[in-house]
Description:
The chain is of the alpha/beta class. The chain has a domain at 50-241: Rossmann fold, CATH 3.40.50. 38% of the residues lie in helices and 12% in strands. The chain has helices spanning 17-22, 38-56, 76-90, 103-113, 144-153, 165-179, 193-208, 227-239, and strands spanning 62-66, 95-97, 118-123, 137-141, 155-160, 188-191, 221-224. It has a seven-stranded parallel β-sheet with strand order 4-3-2-1-5-6-7, sandwiched between helices.
Amino acid sequence: MDSNAKRAPGEPRRPTQDEQLLEGPQPKGAADPILHSDPWLVLRIMGEFVWGFDNLADVKDGVSIFGSARTSPNDPQYGHAVETARLLARAGIPVITGGGPGIMEAANRGASEGGGLSIGCNIELPFEQGSNPYLDRSLNFKFFFVRKTMFIKYATAFVVFPGGFGTFDELFEALTLIQTGKIRHFPVILFGSEYWSGLVEWLTATVAKERKISAPDLKLFHVTDDPAEVLQIVRSARETKPPLMTGDGARATPPVVGEQPSTPEATPAAPKRPE
């Protein structure tokens, strides 16, 4: 539950868990020094990881979709996100978003309309952001980095629609993980060529030209304006992905593309965690 969700009018806003973690050591004499100490927060973080893993353990081969929470339903990109997620869902691919409004709502709506599994991983913010109404499974995280792990761990591709700082954060984290070999055969698809053209030009003409990245790094992402091409890129990457290595060095049998061990009807929204 959001720590600020039931705040009465005029009541001071309580800090989020992320704020408490990042503000530094608590001063001596602070109220509840043990409960707000860094070692205690580590236990909360560990608990949130366990809770997230438990609620998403059956999700295979998902696609995480990102974009601005400020995108309105009459924006063309909203419609493109709906159609993209609808095509993915019809192909049996779970759709994962941040669970909020804008592009996130559009993607969850498309997944729902396509009969697929629609997942929202929301986050506790200083301002209230409710979940959109198109979720089969809704999780509300307190720590950004735990939530970000779920977007990567349970997806095999990112589709990035026009957005702001939060969208850029997810985009560049994925590119960094690919560049450093932490994840492989993980397509990153920028949707909206006009919006992303300035970034692509800067990466090409400035960053790569000055050798801050290598020329092959510019091939770590795709740019498209076609929802059908998104599905084609995702499928192609999975078809060429080698089998996973098990702990004993043997090749594990890869999951079937789009395989979903559970259906939306069998996967209700995640239960609330104890506070």
